[in-house]
Design a protein that fits this description.
This protein is α+β, with helices and mostly antiparallel strands. The protein has two domains: about 30-85, SH3 type barrels; about 95-160, Immunoglobulin-like, CATH 2.60.40.3080. About 15% of the residues lie in helices and about 50% in strands. It is built from one helix and 13 strands. The strands form four sheets. The chain has a four-stranded antiparallel beta sheet with strand order 10-9-12-13, with no helix packed on it. Strand 4 (about 60-65) and strand 5 (about 65-70) form a beta hairpin. The longest helix is centred in the first third of the chain and has 26 residues, at about 1-25. It is extended.
Length: about 160
């Protein structure tokens, strides 16, 4: 009887000890993060085998998904962290909406004096909007080539694909 109780207690303790690690492993993955001085974070999952090298005045990340270079003058830091593979790492109560309608970027619920910025994947600022009134704003992207862009609005980063 005493041995059964001891086994149950040890099993429960092992479960309680291992459970946070199982939950964390299921929801987050190891990620290399390159943070730029303008606040943009670029994430590379370690499963994609990123390799960091320095070439002249650039930091280069080579991975199975492709190569990206960042000017060292623009890099604040690069580090490793656990991140959600969905890119959703925090809950936002009143999010600014970002949508792409053809060649027009629509930013809704943008707060007064908030900044909305458009960046290339290598962190170069393309356009910036800082309205004095809250509301919905439309930005033409017709002059931009097709590809992926990062939109940062109200300290939230969105990734869009212009086709």
């Amino acid at each position: 009887m005493m041995e059964k109780k001891r086994t149950r207690i040890l099993t429960l303790l092992a479960f309680l000890f291992l459970m946070p690690h199982v939950v964390k492993a299921a929801g987050e993955v190891e990620t290399l993060i390159v943070q730029l001085k303008n606040g943009v974070e670029n994430a590379f999952f370690l499963k994609d085998k990123p390799i960091v090298t320095f070439e002249g005045t650039s930091l280069k990340v080579s991975a199975t998904t492709g190569d990206v270079s960042f000017p060292l003058a623009d890099v604040m830091r690069f580090t490793y962290a656990m991140k959600s593979p969905t890119g959703i790492n925090e809950q936002i109560n009143t999010p600014t909406g970002v949508a792409l309608e053809g060649d027009v970027l629509v930013i809704s619920q943008l707060k007064a004096n908030a900044t909305a910025s458009i960046y290339t994947l290598d962190g170069k600022l393309i356009r910036q909007l800082r309205p004095h009134r809250a509301g919905t704003y439309r930005i033409s992207l017709s002059g931009l080539p097709t590809g992926l862009y990062l939109i940062k609005a109200d300290n939230v980063t969105y990734k869009i694909t212009k086709r």
